[in-house]
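User: Can you write out an input/output pair for a complex, sequences first and structure second?

Assistant: Here is one pair. Inputs:
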Amino acid sequence: CSESDLGPISLNWFEELSAEAPP
Amino acid sequence: DVAEQLSPVLPAGPREESLQFVSELKDAWCSCAVDVGTVWWAAAGCRELRVVTACESAVSLWEPLAPGCWARVYTWHLREIPVIQIIPLPDTCNLVCVALGELEIGEIRLLLYSSETDSFEHSLVKTGNIKAVVGLKDWRLVSSSRTMQEQQVEMVSLSETGGSKDRQTLMPPEETVTAFAEVEGMREALVGTTAGNSVVVWNLKTGQLLRKMHVGYSYPASICHRAYSDSGLLFVVLSHPHAKESESCGSPAFRVVAFNPRTGRSAGVMFSCLPPGPPCPRRYLEGDVWDTAGAAVLTSGAVAVWDLLRGRCTAVLPPDPAGHWALARWAAGGAGLLAGRRNGTVHLYRY
């Protein structure tokens, strides 16, 4: 899978989504 | 497209020798086996893997006596509500979790041995119209249940005495959750599949619903079995009980799909298709995943085993005159495969 297929990848996706999602 | 390009070429024939028969266990009281599993059990200073068999009205614990020989240790009789399934609880000991109900799960019970009272007991953990349940590491249980108005997703922390220590409500998605899988190596992350064919991700600590990602329309009613995060991607092993056979990729029993949780985009990584067989309608009935190995019972009455990362069928247990296979479960810790017939016969294989 390349980044072009899946969009920008973040190693810290879990922390980032937790910070952005409604509580 | 990516998945199609990577679709594996089926081998000429599965290697049956990759499964080595170890022993047979026959539950003579059981006229209709509903599930089989393994559980770690500590007794007299020794911790060993024991087999658990379930029929509609009883759950039995079996210990190894000698090589190839099993003895029933205890049977819990549950006569009021039929047993539907055994729920594996990773890293627990002396504890069996079962789901009971009529058409769907109505209650979840823990079956255990109490050293305080020197007796086998059972306790009620959860009731409701339960649609999906999973046991997680660290003595946790997550379930989804529905009322007419709403869906409830809840995590229960279990105590060693069979009670519940703590309950955490998770934000429910709009669609009914059909299965859960813990994200390996991430204690607070959980994924689920939904009736709308999406994969959802929760934060178990906060209860937040972090992301909903659509699986695609080609493979409806996907069920998640395993998930792990690597290099910023979330890899999910899905089974496809309702997949139709296609010329390009056969009939996929399992798929490994990579999701980018940041964007919600996904790409198929590997297909595991039904092994070649007679040209009649054959379908995946039910299956189990451990590490990179998948096992499934097919409508033909056979059990097939795959290396999920290579998309290769590595073994087939054909149905024989003694009866069709109805259950296929991996033993805890990858100790082998359990294949069960409805008549209560269980075969153990080393893989």
